[in-house]
Model the fold of this input.
Amino acid sequence: MSQSPDAAAWLLALDHPQKEVVAAVREQVLAASPTIEEGIKWNAVSFRTTEWFATFNVRGPRGPKPVMLVLHLGARLRGGGASVADPDGLLTWLGADRATITFADLDDVARKAPALAPLLREWITSL
Done:
């Protein structure tokens, strides 16, 4: 697991009712593959291997909204988009090149954790 000091500082400063959920999802993403690194991109914790592939969408402290992890194919537009198996239905597709996974609370993170790691590893191979 490659934790970034910038990402740790971002999380420490985060003023959000779902901060614990963000921290738990962050741990799950970093644990999915030793090739995953994190940093700050688009004003939030983002994850990369050779390319950026996921970014938190954490809107301000407006109540207990679900935490969203946006999966994308980096900053460059690519033809064809992503194609990954999602047998557990974690993904909500926003377009051919991006999807979200939402986490309502810590129990939801725990329920989705077994399916999350293989899905992320497959997403990374689509980069």
